[in-house]
From TrEMBL:
This is Membrane protein. The chain crosses the membrane at residues 86-112, 118-138, 145-165, 171-191. Keywords: Membrane, Transmembrane, Transmembrane helix. It comes from Liquorilactobacillus sucicola DSM 21376 = JCM 15457. The keyword Membrane applies.
Length: 202
């Protein structure tokens, strides 16, 4: 069927993040699904499965959750970067689905925006602290042999800023890891509920 071939080719294009084997498995599954369901036209396929882009986001979200769960079963630690990637994939899958986003989806999106904003503020704060530390150490070193009391003051400020940095950076990383893990768990829960509701409505 030309309609299914075009749809599946487009779907394969959107599944580029997957390996060749994973893409082949997905394409074969939906090829058989379309054939068994007797979907003849592109409109029929999209009415049942959504557009190729929408379906690809669902597949990528399912794959991301599966990989994450496999890693958890193997006791592999999930990095904040992996969690954030999975969360964004889930958000895209929910947003692009041919149905309302729902309160949970909006809440998840708002949480991610808030986290991103907080991360930007934290990075800006750390950058400012680094600049202040460097300026204090530089000024202190210059004044140490001319106005040693003032120089010691600036050196003390610089070393204090360095100490704060040494404590703040690992603390912020740990806090980020914890928050991203909590949000990732919520995203998985929300996506499962979303998928079940979508299956009931199809």
């Amino acid at each position: 069927m030309k309609a299914s071939h075009g749809y599946l080719s487009e779907l394969e294009h959107y599944l580029s993040p997957l390996t060749s084997e994973e893409k082949d498995d997905a394409i074969n599954f939906y090829s058989e699904y379309i054939e068994d369901a007797g979907l003849q036209t592109k409109e029929d396929i999209e009415r049942k499965l959504g557009t190729a882009r929408q379906l690809s986001r669902k597949i990528l979200a399912d794959h991301s959750i599966k990989v994450d769960e496999d890693n958890r079963q193997k006791n592999k630690k999930t990095s904040p970067r992996s969690n954030s990637k999975m969360i964004w994939i889930i958000i895209l899958a929910i947003i692009s689905a041919p149905m309302t986003l729902g309160i949970g989806g909006v809440l998840l999106l708002l949480i991610m925006v808030a986290i991103l904003t907080a991360a930007i503020v934290a990075v800006a704060g750390l950058a400012t602290l680094i600049v202040v530390m460097a300026m204090c150490l530089y000024t202190g070193a210059l004044l140490l042999f001319t106005h040693w009391t003032v120089g010691m003051f600036y050196l003390g400020c610089g070393l204090t800023a360095l100490g704060v940095l040494l404590v703040a950076v690992p603390l912020l990383y740990w806090l980020c890891s914890v928050i991203m893990q909590i949000v990732a768990n919520f995203a998985r829960y929300l996506y499962r509920r979303f998928s079940k509701r979508r299956q009931r409505e199809v």
